[in-house]
Amino acid sequence: MARYNAPLEIHVHGQVALRSNVTFQQLQDVLKPLWKYAGARSLSDATGSFYEDEPGIKFDAQEHLLQMCWTVEGDDDFRQVLDEVCMNLNEVAQTGSAIEVTFYDAEFDEEEEGDSPDAESRDDFVILFVGPDPASIMQVQRDLLVQDVVSLMERHFDGAELGGVVAAVDSLFSQRFDDLVNSLQLGKPPRGSGGGGGGMGHGGGRKPRHLH
Questions:
Q1: Hey, what's the torsion of the CAs at 43, 46, 48, 51, to 10 degrees?
Q2: Strand order in the sheet with 97-105
Q3: Which of 85, 120, 88 is closest to 103 using CA atoms?
Q4: Rounded to 5 degrees, what are φ and ψ at 103?
Q5: What is the DSSP letter of 56?
Q6: How wide is the angle at C-alpha 168 spanned by C-alphas 164 and 171, nearest 5°?
Q7: How far is Cα 80 from Cα 75, in angstroms, rounded to an integer?
Q8: How far apart are CA 158 and CA 154, in angstroms?
């Protein structure tokens, strides 16, 4: 389905390590909300990006990797698509991974809107997390946070001085994980019953940016 006058350009960027037994057909089912939103009839038809210089959606069967550098035209309803895709990716992910999504307001013109104090761009930027279980998701969240915090603080301190800061971040995540485990144990199913975990989170606090 063509999307005429779509107000947003949406860029999805990330790499997800997949289980070794995941096939292209399985990945096509996992990403179905994505390629259907683009108006395609299959994943193969949707692998190309809105911008020709972007790699698009790539499945590396040898390395068991899903690589995405893909832009599509759309609107805020794409957020529901992201929720569905992330839940699906939890089922096939080998490790925790982060996926960056940039919403770029294609209709907003800073020069034309500059005289209007009420005019606001709809630009947005979120980070989604996927993984086979809560622990793997928290690990990639922790790694990303440590990277951001250290990068910020190295402007003022030597890297060797930041061990305490990293330890504090680790402590916060350890407490969060313990709280999660305790909450799951309250409703823990009988031993031997099926069950699964997974999840995702939305990043915030970063200036919206268009990656390409």
A1: -150
A2: 56-60, 65-74, 8-17, 97-105, 124-130
A3: 120
A4: -100, 115
A5: E
A6: 135
A7: 11
A8: 6
> What percentage of the chain has pLDDT greater than the value 70?
77
Residues shown for the chain: 212
DSSP 54: S
Of the two residues 40 and 118, the one the predictor is more confident about is 40
pLDDT digits (tens, 9 = 90+) for 86-128: 999 999 999 999 999 999 988 776 545 545 555 677 789 999 9
SS3 label, residue 31? coil
- Residue scoring higher pLDDT (114 or 78): 78
Cβ–Cβ < 8 Å for 129, 147: no
Secondary structure letter of residue 159 according to DSSP? G
Amino acid at 203: G
7 contacts: CB under 8 Å, gap ≥ 6: 75, 105, 106, 107, 122
**Which residue matches tokens 């946070």?**
145
Q: Cα separation of 128 and 12, whole Å?
A: 10
Q: What is the DSSP letter of 76?
A: T
- Token readout for 95 is 């490790």
Q: Which tokens belong to 156?
A: 């003022």
Which of 48, 49, 57, 54 shows the shortest CA–CA distance to 16? 57
